[in-house]
Amino acid sequence: MPTYQLGQVDFLTTANRVYLTVRENEVAYIKDGEGAEPAIILFEDNLNEVSVVNPRHVSYDFVPVDNNITIVEPQTQNKVSVCDAMILTEALQDVYFIELKDVRKQWVSKAVSQLESTIRIFNDSHSDVAFRHRLAYASNRRHPFPASYRETEEQFRRSLGFKLVVSGRINIL
């Protein structure tokens, strides 16, 4: 598990890609890690987890971020709060950041905060990569289809250049 100082994070290195080239399955599921374990990708929905829908069977790499890529503040060495996972489609065409929650109240603002933190670090480290699609998913298996967050989504897009989607279903475009 690599540790990076802020400003020196390489999210795109293949060393961080725990699940290389997922492609055959139209649907996969993401399970949040327990304790200090990173998120994992499953090919059976054994606990009604957040789904990843891939109707075109696009190849992608699944990258656990939290508990896999450690980012620390240079002065304090305190760990920075990051989202749970990232998906990179083949040839770095698309990037998806994912924050998983499993609570009933006030989960969207907490998920958005973790996504913002991660994406700011990512944008600082990889501003030269021109992705076709840049999405961030705030997902909750207890609330797969929450209310509208249009204002939050618009502010997120203007601030970070990523489309925010609040949904229990991640769609690979």
Number of strands: 12
Low-confidence stretches: none
In DSSP terms (H or I, runs of 4 or more residues), the helix count works out at 2
Shape: globular
Helix vs. strand class:
alpha/beta
SSE string, helices as H and strands as E: EEEEEEEEEHEHEE
Q: Biggest β-sheet, characterized? A: 6 strands, mixed
Radius of gyration: 15 Å
Helicity range: 10-25%
User: How is the largest sheet built, in terms of strand order?
Assistant: 2-6-8-9-10-11
Distance between the termini: 29 Å
What is the mean predicted local confidence, pLDDT?
89
| Amount of beta strand | 25-35%
Please describe the topology of this protein:
Elements: E1 3-5, E2 19-22, E3 27-31, E4 40-42, E5 50-53, E6 60-64, E7 70-72, E8 85-89, E9 94-101, H1 107-125, E10 133-140, H2 150-160, E11 163-166, E12 169-171
Parallel strand pairs: 1-7, 5-12, 9-10, 10-11
Antiparallel strand pairs: 2-6, 3-4, 3-5, 6-8, 8-9
